[in-house]
Amino acid sequence: MKLNEEISEWLKSYLINNKLDCFVIGISGGVDSALTSILCAITGVKTIVVSLPIRQNKEQLNRVTNHIKWLKERFSNVKSYEIDLTKTFNTFEQLFDDKNELALANSRSRLRMTTLYQIAGSNKGLVVGTGNKIEDFGIGFFTKYGDGGVDISPIADLLKSEVFTMAKELGVIDEIINAKPTDGLWDDNRSDEDQIGATYDELEKIMTYTGSLKNLTERELEVYNIYTRLNKLNKHKITQIPIFKKNEIHAN
């Protein structure tokens, strides 16, 4: 059995064992959500894919629309919604005098999460995560209780290169394969690389590197520092939230 078949079987078994009826996935126009939606659709179970634009760049929105069209042409079990959250977000934004850019970007992600759970709750569904291994367990490149708020994560053990390989094998459209990765949370359409300071290929090499730091090039050392800094900074996302234990001795 191929890896993509194993993942789809795992998804289906989890859904059935928990007596639920469908998968719910937010589609961003990127390769991770495209692959995840295909893995869910392959199960034959009802799969709801959702476009959730918020002041969205036209190219990103076109990729979302084209992928959903491609998906529905191939899988009769796929249903789609487009829920434009721009007005809702604009109303939310106006409540605050301090327009902190990062906080508002994270709020976009959390607004989308709330919408996906509303759909899942109305359809006895599971919200399916689309994060890969580098994002979820390497540098914590996701929004806590936003795109990190999910019920199940089918590709969280796949490196980005593995995501691309599987996506190509399963026929994800070229415009998604060739697009620069972006989280789509910013008005200026900045890419993931712009935010992180390194490409996924560079990060993947560091994440899987087991040799001596002395053997790294100057650029690789720079990426190593980026990776370790973000891993430490975002540890609160990657690990369980702190819980006070009443029977433990706590230092002053």
Structure, described:
This protein is α/β, with parallel strands linked by helices. The protein has one domain (3-193): HUPs (Rossmann fold), CATH 3.40.50.620. 50% of the residues lie in helices and 8% in strands. It has twelve helices and four strands. A four-stranded parallel sheet has the order 3-2-1-4, with helices on both faces. Strand 2 (46-51), helix 3 and strand 3 form a beta-alpha-beta unit. The model has no long low-confidence stretch (mean pLDDT 95).
Give the key terms:
252 residues, alpha/beta, Rossmann fold, 4-stranded parallel sheet, 8% strand
| General form | globular
Main sheet: strands, sense, barrel: 4 strands, parallel
Give the second-level CATH assignment, the architecture.
3-Layer(aba) Sandwich
**Main structural class:** alpha/beta
Physical arrangement of strands within the biggest beta sheet:
3-2-1-4
- The percent of residues in helical segments reads 40-55%
Q: Compute the CA-based radius of gyration.
A: 19 Å
How is this structure best summarized?
With 252 residues, the protein is an alpha/beta fold.
What's the structural blueprint in terms of helices and strands?
Blueprint: H1 3-17, E1 22-27, H2 31-41, E2 46-51, H3 58-74, E3 78-82, H4 86-93, H5 101-122, E4 125-127, H6 133-138, H7 160-169, H8 174-177, H9 192-196, H10 200-207, H11 218-233, H12 235-238
Helix pairs in contact: 2-7, 10-11
